[in-house]
Design goal:
The protein is α+β, with helices and mostly antiparallel strands. It has four helices and three strands. Helix content is about 60%, strand content about 15%. Strands 1-3-2 form a three-stranded antiparallel sheet. The two termini are about 25 Å apart.
């Protein structure tokens, strides 16, 4: 098995949750999301983020508006819909459960049975 591939799959598995968390803080531009995800070592590229944003929008979880930019073309700013907020709440509860379960498993002493 390849460690790097498994690590990438783990990151991909939580990417949607992370993107929704970023957007939940307020209207967000995709480039700013990419910067934050990269800083957090989520290793995301535009070719991954934009299709994800489109899927989330088509599912009714996001909406966007165009804002004129002083330094180039208009920018698309994303925000959660009411449905997106509810969806994120459900994901947050699941995340908390997973973190708790994982900590229970990984904190056990290997000599205990």
């Amino acid at each position: 098995m390849n460690l790097e591939n498994t690590q990438i799959q783990m990151r991909k598995g939580i990417l949607e949750y992370c993107v929704l968390q970023i957007i939940a803080r307020g209207e967000t531009y995709a480039s700013d999301m990419l910067d934050e995800l990269t800083l957090a070592k989520m290793i995301v590229v535009e070719g991954t983020l934009y299709p994800l944003l489109t899927r989330l929008k088509n599912a009714g979880l996001l909406e966007y508006k165009w804002v004129e930019s002083k330094s180039g073309p208009p920018r698309k700013y994303y925000k959660l819909t009411t449905e997106g907020e509810k969806f994120l709440q459900g994901l947050s509860e699941t995340w908390d459960d997973l973190v708790h379960s994982t900590q229970m498993i990984t904190s056990k002493n290997t000599t205990q049975a």
